[in-house]
Amino acid sequence: MYKLIEQMIQDVIWFRSPEGTFDYISPSAQHLLGYEPQELVGTTIADYFHPNDTNHLQQLLDKVQDGQDVGIFTCRFRHKEGRYLWLENTFTAIHNKNGELVRILGVGRDVTRRKQAENRLLQAERIAHVGSWERDVQSKTLYWSDELYRIFGLDPKPSIPVEVMYSRIHPADLPRVKQAINDADNGSPYDIQYRIIRPSGEIRHVHAQGQVELKDGVVSAVSGSLQDITEYKLATESLQKSKENLKLAQKIARLGHWDWDIINDDLFWSDEVYRIFGMSAADRPDTSLKGFLDSVHPDDRDFVRQSIEDALTGESYDIEYRALLPNGRSSIVHVIGETAFGHAGTPVRLFGTVQDVTVQRQTEDMLRTSEKLSMAGQLAAGIAHEIRNPLTVLKGFVQILSHSETGDKGRYFELMESELCRIETITSELLFLAKPHGVSFEQRDIRVILQEVVVLLGTEAIMRNVLIECDYDDVVTMVTCEASQLKQVFVNIVKNAIEAMPNGGTLSIKVTRVHDSVHIQFTDEGVGIPAESVPRIGAPFYTTKPGGTGLGLMVSQKIILSHGGTLNISSQVGVGTTAEISLPAVFPTSP
């Protein structure tokens, strides 16, 4: 019967002599370890057990020889193929009737799969920073996994008193933890986040969860897991801080965000959008597109509605319009949006930002007006001289007519009418430039606007010995523009060119149409601008002219940009400067 059991059992049974060699190995060694039993007889444990386990194994065997119970020991045994198996071993000392040790009986069981599973679990715990634990309610003793000791920064032990854990909990969180443990002892769920202090002084955030185990209806133990959530906690706090900073930045910049659910026709507004529109969520019961359009100035609604429809087809959504406030006033807002499309290409969301630019636009208008008045003041002397000449002619003819009874009076009246028209033209141009105008875009021929500027500045050019030459294309050079604003830009550029030629010279103005753009080029023969200064031209308060403000070209850049065009300056010291403007051309429609 013993032989039958020995042959059928899967565990390896072996006998070890007092001298340390194997006296006997059961036949299962061949199946389990790859060795024939006779191959192992006469060898020692050092020949087959893993080097890291040999010393500990020998110490246990020495204790067994001394009659001590060492329980179960797990170690690695080298398979004949060279790989190692995990064996769970039990040892028993066998003595003769005289009490002398004759051999040690050992039984080894293959637990490789279980050990691999345990290692995978430990690896997963390390990766997820999760440790397992169990607490005996009666003894108040904790049993921790190795990962849990690592989280707390402690050396692994078979067990740990709960007071040791308490000593590592942040003092501010300790009362909550003790209360949670007390509640768990009474059957309540255990789920709490708190801080621990490692022996190094490092503070970590952990999340502990557990469930109770009942015995005869009484809680006998609580077991569960504990996860190190420090990185998550810090990331969450950083994200929350970023959100708060973003919210503050949006409030300072008066910038809000919005999101329109097209399918459900539901428009979300952030808190800052409500502030921009001067209302609260309670004041806005209708969150549909129609409800939004009600808050748009009536004169701008069609434009906004059309812009939204274009955005739903994939066009860019970047517009400015007037928002109608509850107090009856309006503010100017700049809105940028982007459309998200579904799998079928159907628009599902339109989202973006909105910014209150009222103060910015008012400031720009003030700058433009200030620059206009400044130009008007600078032109006053030249205009006065230009008007004085025809007035002198008129005065002389009046005197001649008052003393002449005969003669060709018709020719005198013709000359007088011509000079009066000249005075009217010059004064009209000066007033047109100086007085404020409402922004009204219309189609104009750029050559006509330029010619009006040349007439206005012609006298100043003559006084400074500057010749203005104009070269215009015969093709259509129509643009959609606000004429007074473009005239302000041209006056600024021409005046700069004239002032850059103190010894006289030629200013060439050339107008061409290239594809779908109209190009206006101003080239002078002035002193030029140093290469390092050219990139700064147009910056606020930067100027190369004594007593200048640097606002002229900045305002001009803004005006050209608002017309969808570009303004570029190039210069060479001692040669001259070229200012080139490009504007979208307008083509006549066929009848």
UniProtKB/TrEMBL annotation:
Q: Which parts of the sequence belong to the Histidine kinase domain?
A: 382-587
Top-level taxon in the UniProt lineage: Bacteria
Q: Where is the PAS domain?
A: 1-68, 117-188, 267-315
Coiled-coil boundaries: none
State if Secreted is listed as a keyword: no
> What catalytic reaction does the record list?
ATP + protein L-histidine = ADP + protein N-phospho-L-histidine
Question: Where is the chain membrane-spanning?
Answer: none
| EC identifiers of the protein | 2.7.13.3
Q: Which Pfam families match?
A: HATPase_c (PF02518), HisKA (PF00512), PAS_3 (PF08447)
- Which keywords accompany this UniProt record? ATP-binding, Kinase, Nucleotide-binding, Phosphoprotein, Transferase, Two-component regulatory system
PAC domain mapped to chain residues: 71-123, 190-241, 317-369
Q: What class of enzyme is it?
A: transferase
Keyword field contains Kinase? yes
Q: State the NCBIfam families in the record.
A: sensory_box
* Protein's name according to its UniProt entry: histidine kinase
Organism from which the protein derives: Alicyclobacillus dauci
